């Protein structure tokens, strides 16, 4: 993982590796999972140069949020609950929409599957509108975010680069991976975006990847279900470490302020660098 992308330091707090994010998740659409599994199967033999993302952690980052709020206080569960309320209000102004998932290609830092609008007649594409509405809600809750882009770059990362592949032998491996992805280059599928998830996301630099724990699902207008928070496991106490809360199938992530962890439900947004 490129040093410029690291959230924390080796001698810093464990909580520095965890940040709130807003994600779109594909896990309720089987045909999307089937497509992404094709990508994962191609990527798997190249795990010496890329770190595949586990299926449970597949996502599109709608909005990254910093670990400290606008007042430089570490974000806690109470602020996240307020952000959920504020974002949900704004999402009621948006109707669910379709996106095209694909094509897939090896970029300079990851194996990327593009997420593109199906309806290209709008002045502002729906993914960018979704990003803007989420930002307005998060800002109303006092959260701090990276600067807004004019157009949101929607994508799914199947894997992140482990190492610099400029050396001749590794460059050949990278070229082979890119070639292996070519047969999917002209393929895409459609998916419906009707909700997003507010999550705690954790960066794992030693593994070159990210995981997340779901906090609350938030719905666009017309979605039938109302938001439901993820089930809590373990006391919400500053003295209780997250390792004492062990829901199946995976242990809760490192605790944040308030030592909150949520149960795992089986179910980074940045421009490319180099595989």
Features:
275 residues; alpha+beta; 4-stranded antiparallel beta sheet; 4 helices; globular
- Average pLDDT value? 79
Radius of gyration: 18 Å
Give unreliable regions as ranges: 225-275
How many beta-strand elements?
A: 9
- Number of helices, counting only DSSP H or I runs of 4 residues or more: 4
Can you summarize the main beta sheet?
A: 5 strands, antiparallel
- The helicity comes to 10-25%
H/E order of the elements?
EHEEHEEHEHEEE
Strand line-up in the sheet with most strands: 2-6-5-4-7
**Binned strand content:** 15-25%
First and last CA, distance:
10 Å
Structural class: alpha+beta
User: Per the principal axes of the C-alpha atoms, what is the gross shape?
Assistant: globular
Blueprint of the fold:
Layout: E1 18-24, H1 30-43, E2 50-52, E3 60-64, H2 77-91, E4 97-106, E5 110-117, H3 126-140, E6 155-161, H4 168-180, E7 189-193, E8 195-204, E9 209-219
Antiparallel strand pairs: 1-3, 1-8, 2-6, 4-5, 4-7, 5-6, 8-9
Helix pairs in contact: 2-3
Provide a descriptive summary of the structure in words.
This protein has 275 residues and is α+β, with helices and mostly antiparallel strands. It contains 4 helices and 9 strands. The strands form 2 sheets. It has a 5-stranded antiparallel β-sheet with strand order 2-6-5-4-7. The chain has a 4-stranded antiparallel β-sheet with strand order 3-1-8-9. Strand 4 and strand 5 (110-117) form a beta hairpin. Helix 2 (77-91) crosses helix 3. The protein is globular, with a radius of gyration of 18 Å. The N and C termini lie close together (10 Å).
């Amino acid at each position: 993982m490129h040093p410029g992308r690291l959230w924390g330091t080796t001698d810093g707090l464990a909580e520095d590796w965890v940040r709130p994010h807003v994600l779109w998740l594909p896990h309720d659409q089987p045909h999307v999972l089937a497509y992404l599994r094709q990508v994962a199967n191609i990527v798997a033999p190249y795990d010496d140069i890329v770190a595949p993302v586990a299926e449970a952690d597949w996502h599109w980052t709608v909005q990254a949020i910093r670990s400290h709020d606008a007042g430089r206080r570490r974000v806690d569960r109470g602020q996240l609950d307020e952000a959920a309320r504020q974002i949900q209000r704004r999402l009621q102004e948006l109707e669910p929409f379709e996106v095209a998932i694909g094509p897939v290609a090896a970029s300079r830092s990851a194996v990327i599957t593009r997420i593109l609008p199906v309806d290209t007649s709008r002045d502002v594409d729906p993914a960018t509108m979704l990003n803007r509405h989420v930002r307005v809600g998060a800002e109303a809750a006092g959260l701090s975010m990276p600067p807004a882009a004019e157009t949101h770059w929607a994508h799914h990362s199947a894997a992140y680069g482990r190492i610099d592949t400029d050396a001749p032998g590794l460059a050949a491996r990278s070229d082979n991976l890119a070639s292996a992805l070519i047969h999917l280059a002209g393929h895409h599928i459609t998916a419906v975006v009707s909700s997003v998830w507010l999550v705690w996301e954790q960066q794992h630099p030693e593994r070159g990847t990210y995981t997340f724990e779901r906090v609350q699902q938030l719905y666009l207008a017309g979605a039938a279900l109302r938001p439901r928070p993820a089930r809590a496991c373990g006391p919400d106490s500053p003295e209780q470490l997250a390792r004492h809360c062990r829901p199946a199938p995976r242990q809760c992530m490192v605790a944040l302020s308030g030592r909150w962890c949520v149960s795992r439900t089986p179910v980074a947004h940045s421009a490319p660098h180099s595989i």
